[in-house]
Amino acid sequence: EEVVAQEKQACLPTDTGPVIPTTPLVIFLEKLQETALNTYGHKGFDPKLYVDMSLRFNLSETHEAFNKLPRTDNGSVLAPHLNGFLSEYMNAAGDDLVYVEPVDFVAQPAGFLPNVDNLEVRAWALEVHSLWKNLSRQVSDQVLDHPDLHSLLPLASPVMIPGSRFREVYYWDSYWVIRGLLASKMYETAKGIVTNLVSLIENFGHVLNGARAYYTNRSQPPLLSAMIVDIYNRTSDLDFVRKSLPSLITEHNFWNSGIHRMNIQDSQGKTHYLSRYYAMWNEPRPESSTIDKETAGKLSNFCEKQHLYRELASAAESGWDFSSRWMRNASDLTTLCTTSIIPVDLNAFILKMELDISYLAHVSQDESTAEHFAEASKARQTAMNTVLWNEEMGQWLDYWIDANSSSQGTYKWKASDQNQSVFASNFIPLWTQPFNSDDDLVDKVSKSLQHSGLLRDAGIATSLANTGQQWDFPNGWAPLQHMIVEGLVKSGSKEARSLAEDIAMKWINTNYAAYKKTGTMHEKYDVEKCGAFGGGGEYVPQTGFGWSNGVVLAFLEEFGWPEDLKIGC
Ligand SMILES: OC[C@H]1O[C@H](O[C@H]2O[C@H](CO)[C@@H](O)[C@H](O)[C@H]2O)[C@H](O)[C@@H](O)[C@@H]1O
Fold first, then answer.
1. Predicted ipTM?
2. In sequence order, what DSSP letters do the residues of 389-446 get, joined into one string?
3. How far is the CA of 309 from the centre of ligand 1 (A)?
4. pLDDT digits (tens, 9 = 90+) for 159-190
5. What family is this (predicted)?
6. pTM
7. Contact 343/274 with Cβ under 8 angstroms?
């Protein structure tokens, strides 16, 4: 322990970022995960399974029994002994989040997708709608009575999980789940999800990546305000808005202070403030600890490893885990440098957050807050135009911070520090009002999108680089399709709507064809082949799937489906 403390001390000049300590339970579960890998081997091994298990007895009793397990000469536990320990001392992953029937689910909601006339499409949409019943969960009483035995965090209202190994609520996934729930007319369930996320801000100061003890050290793309605005616009529930507003302001502060805030000075000497992802953690991610240790195994130096762990966790905070977008060398994950990048999408989300808070404050008759956040949004819009916009490409580009250009924490802007690689995220600002209401800009960005190489037969590719990482080519993800399509639609331009409709149809067709082939909705799709699901990354492709279901329903709500149009590939 002393050696580790000395090594940590030695990293201080390079790693000064904050760390939120994890719990003794999570530390034990990681130990169990590592033992399980040694015992059962890599084949079919999912490290997350072990940190999602809960204890049947208190931690010290469990730990003692675990320490007493007979070990071989090389320190590993034989499978029968570990099997015995797991069945005697541990509850299965997922046992603490129990099924609950959503209070507002009806098989055929009144006014459901009024413009879907084709009977086959309608029948499928009703099946997708019925999947809310599969994904609905309530934290069990055991978690409420004995939180110390569970990595699952207690939440008061029911949740929608993404599905499969993702057996807890996730932050940004919830936005598209809510969009689907709104199409399904399940307003109470949608509000309950928001109430849970607001409670996370009250308890932790930010919305967590997901509702697990091992996710407390980072957030995810901040879309809480977008959830609240969309729910308010459908329900006019002002009380709901008033209860959520203080937490939104806390969240805005989280993303605009300390490690998340970056100061960039432009060529005229004006300083702009933008935000970045930065996890409060510099050790292996507990849910993927064995994988992270293996990745870091290529590095020899303790400080380099510590740095990599923060970059891995920060990439997870971005929702894009992992992608060439965050890597200096697209074939080497140890070159991740997430915290040195000012991301386009994060700043678009915060710009939207500022506009949303302003709007919500206005409807709550809090004019001074409304004015304050309207001003903040203008400043961010200017900052995005100056730092991230690239006129020649007609796209916003991630900005890579050059450590050598800093003077007292302010970085000097250089055109060459914009990353000219094409990612779907370069088009996300279109989703926000100040950009999608500018006709010339929309025209320019739409043309850029059409020539970008991202538009494929079955949707928008995440990037142009085929790296084997899941947030890269040829994977397409529902949230990215949705934000770009909705941005084009919101512009009000006829041409942009037609491009949006084309992308949405392709996405619906591929989701449908894959559903018919496999009987399930998928987490991600391969946009090169209609009807194929995606792959790559550190875990096997997952099904269920919250945000994919939500986006299909949202697209069908927006565009409908004519009676005589065939669906599928
Ligand atoms: O277990 C590895 C990682 O898994 C999550 O990331 C992926 O699934 C999430 C849920 O659908 C999604 O929000 C995220 O965009 C995906 O990349 C998790 O969020 C990561 O923190 C975790 O390390």
1. 0.96
2. EETTTTEE--EE--GGGEETTEEEP-GGGB--S-BGGGGGGGGSHHHHT-HHHHHHHH
3. 16
4. 999 999 999 999 999 999 999 999 999 999 99
5. Belongs to the glycosyl hydrolase 37 family.
6. 0.97
7. no
What is the atom index within ligand 1 of the atom nearest the CA of 210? 19
What percent of the chain shows pLDDT beyond 90?
95
Distance of CA 460 to the CA centre of its chain: 18
Atom of ligand 1 nearest to the CA of 319: 15
Which atom of ligand 1 lies nearest, measured to the CA of 173? 13
Active site residue 251: no
| Burial profile 350-380: b = 16 or more Cβ within 10 angstroms, e = fewer | bbbbbbbbbbbbebbebeebbeebbebbeeb
Under 8 Å between Cβ of 158 and 100: yes
> In 3D, which of 428, 410, 415, 407 has the Cα closest to residue 477?
428
Tell me whether residue 283 is one of the annotated catalytic residues: no
Q: Which of 321, 354, 356, 486 is catalytic?
A: 321
Burial of 118 (0-12, 13-18, 19+ CB in 10 A): middle
For residue 88, give both structure tokens: 């005697």
Tokens standing for 111? 């006014």
| Coil vs helix vs strand at 136 | strand
Atom 15, ligand 1: residue with shortest CA distance: 319
Between CA 26 and CA 51 the distance in angstroms is: 7
Residue 111 CA to residue 130 CA, distance in Å, equals: 16
Asked whether 287 lines ligand 1 (CB < 6 A), one says: yes
When pLDDT is cut at 50, 70 and 90, the band that residue 142 belongs to is: very high
In sequence order, the 6+-apart residues with CB closer than 8 A to the CB of 327 are 333, 335, 336, 337, 467
Residue located nearest, by CA, to atom 20 of ligand 1:
316
CB atoms within 10 A of CB 80: 9
The rounded Cα 281 to chain-centroid distance in angstroms is 17
